[in-house]
Amino acid sequence: MPSGAPVLRATRGPAVASIAVSAVGRQGRSGARLPPRRFLVKAVALVIAVVAVGALVGQAVRGNRTVGAQLATTTVHDAHVDNAFYRCLDVQTRSLVSPGQTVAFGAGDLGDLVTLLKAVGSWVTVSDQPGRASVELSLRTMTGAGTCLGTVVVARTRGPGGRVTVRMGTGDQVNGHGPPPAPPL
Questions:
Q1: Cα(107)–Cα(116) distance, rounded to whole angstroms?
Q2: pLDDT for 76-94, tens place per residue?
Q3: Predicted structure pTM score
Q4: CB-count exposure of residue 93 (10 Å: 0-12, 13-18, 19+)
Q5: What angle do CA 133, 142, 170 make, to 5 degrees?
Q6: How many CB atoms lie within 10 A of CB 96?
């Protein structure tokens, strides 16, 4: 080993640089002024914080208005009518379809299909082959008692010998006419 070469020794514990090495590249602080780069970083951080707080306040105000609109008397009333309408269709369908029976939806318009799915789609078993379904459900517009806002559920079943039986749902009614009110957007 040549003379004058540093000798490395294994030590226990963390290695600490000497004072001379840790002080390299540091400048003494003069006190009041930040270096331009540090000032820029702090200014950008402040702008981001102000924008974020402003956005949070704006969303809080918007959320408060939304909750206020949803708690308005007309909105609450419309929601109750909407719930009663779909509950009425559900009760009428349960009077026509027994558990385990497969169901097909009649060739009505798309709106009737969506309405039936919203009312009973969670519990009926929809047949993958409509011709083999036990019951075909559809909606019919009628006036008078026993309707759900002027709508009644109709079931068509095919008995022995191909005889078709048509029955209307019973068990609940919602007075009035027309579809339930549209929910607020």
A1: 12
A2: 888 889 999 999 999 999 9
A3: 0.64
A4: buried
A5: 55
A6: 21
